[in-house]
Amino acid sequence: MNGFCVECGINTNQLVNGLCMECFLKDRTLVSLPDHVDLSVCTSCGQFLWHGEYQSMASEKAIALAAKSALTCIREGKVVKVNAVIEPRDNYNYAVTLQCKVAISDFETDAVASTIVRIKNTVCKICSRRTGNYYEAILQVRTSEKTLSPALQDEVLKKIEDFVDYTATTNPNAFITKMEIVPGGVDVYLSMIALGRELVKLLGDQYCAETDESSKLVGQTRDGIEMYRVSYLVRLPEFHLGDIVRYGKKYYQLIRISNSGGKLRSLTNFQETPVRRANMPELKVYLKSSELEVADVISKSYGEVQIMDPTNYSMKDLLVPKDADIGETVKFARIDGILYYVPQ
Ligand SMILES: [Zn+2]
Ligand SMILES: [Zn+2]
């Protein structure tokens, strides 16, 4: 031992600022808390503001974190462990006592500090946007036909809702602000530009649809960043899977649609022809799949069926693929007075 306490004179090597541990700790406040600590909660979604962001957490945890974040310790020590004891005063005020272990060089001691955590009612940015009809993008769903059929409208809106719901599981900023039926389609207002961008791509690919986008400067943020509102257009094509289409003066059934284009099956020899996406707008719908006629099969042979034309009860022979599985009825397309078998 070659040290001694300047206060009590005891011989020890464990000196802090020239004092033995006992003299150093005497009447000294090791940890302290302010009189009160504010904790913001969103009254709408119940999330707590923590490190600048609203986060979902249990109120006990949020209260404890709020108190711990305000805890200060003397320069010579370090808090190595904290236990929070919370006692509610009322719905907005919680007395919190932090029981701490403080390390001073290689010595550990206990210390406590108390505060009141005050819950402040606020509305988070997301909730205020939701209630304020906030939107950054408009997805305009249109059709190449005269009107968007209710069935197709439902189908497309379901895809949009599913996509936004899925995105919202990881990004609470994602929501649909509103939907508006407009002449020739639907406008879907979206909270994020990214939603519009991804949805127009998704729908464009799934329906092999034409897409477009345009943006409009709507103002500036407080820090001078220009804000745009973007309109995304998806024009759903007239053709749908199963329709009879004209392409290059020949007739086909549309049997596949993908992001790269479509696939056609000839009505005369049943051969398949791919069509690039860029050429898809050239497809002209001749008959919708729902407009195909049905005829009774009278007899069938290899590569052929005999049917009764339901309009005049005459017998007609139709070519069918060699491997066709023919039941009691077949569907056919009538083009310029000639009947063509259409595989289903
Ligand atoms: Zn001493
Ligand atoms: Zn909220």
**Percent range of helical residues:** 10-25%
Structural class: alpha+beta
The radius of gyration computed from the alpha-carbon positions, rounded to a whole number of angstroms, is: 37 Å
**Main beta sheet:** 5 strands, mixed
Percent of sequence in beta strands? over 45%
List segments where confidence is low: pLDDT < 50 over at least 5 consecutive residues. Answer: none
Mean pLDDT score: 92
Quaternary form? single chain
* Order of the strands making up the biggest sheet: 12-13-11-15-14
Spatial shape? elongated
DSSP, total strands: 25
Bound compounds, each kind once, are:
zinc ion
Distance between the termini: 98 Å
Spell out the helices and strands N to C.
EEHEEEEHEEEEHEHEEHEEEEEEEEEEEE
Helix segment count?
A: 5
Number of domains as seen in the coordinates: 3
What does this structure look like?
- With 344 residues, this protein is an alpha+beta fold.
- 17% of the residues lie in helices and 47% in strands.
- The strands form seven sheets. A five-stranded mixed β-sheet has the order 12-13-11-15-14, with helices on one face. It has a five-stranded antiparallel β-sheet with strand order 19-18-17-16-20.
- The radius of gyration is 37 Å and the shape is elongated.
- It starts with 14 loop residues before the first strand and ends with a strand.
- The model has no long low-confidence stretch (mean pLDDT 92).
- The protein binds zinc ion (ZN) (2 copies).
- The site of one zinc ion has 8 residues, from strand 2 and helix 1.
